[in-house]
Amino acid sequence: MNNIQQTLSIIKPDAVERNLSEEIKNEFKNNNFDILKEKKVKISKSEAEKFYQVHQTKPFYNDLCEYLSSGPIVVMILERNEAVTENRKLMGATDPTKAEEGTLRKKFGISIDKNSVHGSDSLENAKKEIDFFFKD
Ligand code: CMP
């Protein structure tokens, strides 16, 4: 049975800076994701703090927010069957050194911070994250 979902994907500053956006977008398309909307933006540190609010008690929160606001990012709404889970599978483990062969973070990630892509971790967060970037 089909369960078409939408999820939010971010191509992070390390990947945009290395001109990997088109290659990463093609990976999504080749894995049956439709890119419904996309835009390239640069967010402020306070916007990053809001976006990553769920991590505010974590020791890496400040660095994470500094990093996401350090350069342009590409944000996209991805759609396919089971989009949330399938995107997380395609991205691989958060730490690129632990990510499986063939995953985006294994292919493109540099470190746990500079791990090239973000994807929503649940359907509930996907809705919140899509709203965050594409409300209007
Ligand atoms: P992301 O999927 O964007 O969600 C939160 C980010 O925090 C994560 O990817 C990592 O890039 C970053 N991060 C940095 N340190 C850690 C850590 N120790 N555990 C999990 N995420 C971390």
Number of strands: 4
Distance between the termini: 32 Å
- What proportion strand? 15-25%
Can you give the helix content as a percent range?
Answer: 40-55%
Textual characterization of the structure:
Helix content is 41%, strand content 21%. The chain has seven helices and four strands; from the N terminus they run βααβααβααβα. The chain has helices at 13-17, 21-30, 45-51, 61-68, 83-91, 104-108, 123-134; strands at residues 4-11, 34-41, 73-81, 117-119. A four-stranded antiparallel beta sheet has the order 2-3-1-4, sandwiched between helices. Helix 3 crosses helix 4 (61-68). 32% of the residues are buried. Bound molecules: adenosine-3',5'-cyclic-monophosphate. Residues 55, 60, 64, 94, 112-113, 115, 118 line the site of adenosine-3',5'-cyclic-monophosphate (CMP).
